[in-house]
Each structure stands twice: as structure tokens, then as C-alpha cells.
Amino acid sequence: MDVEIIDHITLRPIEISDVDDFMVWATDENVSRFCTWDTYTSKPQAFEFINNIAIPHPWFRVICINNRAIGSISITPHSGVDSCRAELGYVLAQKYWGKGIVTRAVKMVTSAVFSEFPYLERLEALVDVDNKGSQRVLEKAGFLREGILRKYIILKGKSRDIVIFSFLSTDSLRS
């Protein structure tokens, strides 16, 4: 069944009509545990995020099965002296964890990002040291684990160590 699911994954821009699907993962404390955002508590809060942040974002997509949003993935390009790099972020509804869905979505994005943003040379992802599942996703997608950034971010009120991963425009995708 997992192979069948993976074959039907699509990515598309988020729409306001995705709000109910968005609420499934955004209100789940297990999902938001390692995210920089706090768990959502209301639909108006979700509408505000979708309208004011996700839709105008330079590259924010929902991960879909049968056009139903089950998570999201984004690329945030840096500007100025950092314009050669962008940051990858993703989240997935808990019931879909462990099925290879995010790994597939990351591979889809990685294969397209350098042609969509031709000035990029580096795609990077920052992952909490305790988020082993997300680290496995990136490793399976061909990202290189570069090291640990100690006490790099304040997450949910505590300073946290972060593992940094990268994929360069000259790297090869794993099949």
C-alpha cells in the first residue's frame, strides 16, 4: 500500500479551501513539536496563516494524495549575500508518518528547485537533534548531514541544538 500512496503524491499551491485539511496537522501537538510555530487552536488562526503567509510565500506547496492536503513543504530563498541558498521546511499529518511520503516530496522538490531558482547553489534544512524521523527523511533524499549547530534556536521556550543538512546543485539525487 505504501508504494501505491507514494505514486499518487502531488504538490500544489495551498488554497484557502485547504483549511480543514490544514487543521488536521496544525492542531496536532505531535506534529508541531519540532516546528517553529505553536500548535494551532482555531480555524481563524489557520485562515490568517494561509491568507497572509502561505499563499504569498515565494514557494509554499501542500503535499497531496488525491488532491487532499496531508502536509506542506516550502522553500524559502535567502536574499543579499545569502542569495545562493534556500531553506527547506516540511510537515506531515501524523497518520501518514513512516510511509515515505515526505521523502518522496523532498525528492520531488529537490529535483525541481535548482531549475525554478537558477541562482541557488544550496538547499539546506535545519532539524532538531531529537527529530530522528526528519533526519532520516533528509538522508534518504540524498542530503548531506553537515553537523550540529549548538544552541542554535529557541524552540518552544528552550534553546535547542540543530542538525544542518544540505543538498547542492551539483549533488546527485538518490533514486
Could you characterize what this model shows?
The chain has six helices and seven strands. The chain is α+β, with helices and mostly antiparallel strands. It has a domain at 2-120: 3-Layer(aba) Sandwich (Aminopeptidase). Helix 2 crosses helix 4. The radius of gyration is 16 Å and the shape is globular. The two termini are 19 Å apart. The model has no long low-confidence stretch (mean pLDDT 92).
Concise description?
With 175 residues, this protein is an alpha+beta fold.
Labels describing this entry:
alpha+beta; Aminopeptidase; seven-stranded mixed β-sheet; globular
Largest beta-sheet characterization: 7 strands, mixed
Average pLDDT reading: 92
Secondary-structure element series: HEHHHEEEHEHEE
Shape: globular
Number of helices: 6
Q: Determine Rg (CA atoms, Å).
A: 16 Å
CATH architecture field of the domain at 2-120: 3-Layer(aba) Sandwich
> Largest beta sheet: what is the strand line-up?
1-2-3-4-5-7-6
What amount of the residues lies in strands? 25-35%
Class inferred from helices and paired strands: alpha+beta
Q: What is the first-to-last residue Cα distance?
A: 19 Å
CATH homologous superfamily of the domain at 2-120?
Gcn5-related N-acetyltransferase (GNAT)
Please write the CATH class name of the domain at 2-120: Alpha Beta
Looking at the structure, the CATH topology of the domain at 2-120 is Aminopeptidase
Poorly predicted runs are none
Q: Please, what is the oligomeric state? A: single chain
Helix content, binned percent: 25-40%
Beta-strand segment tally = 7
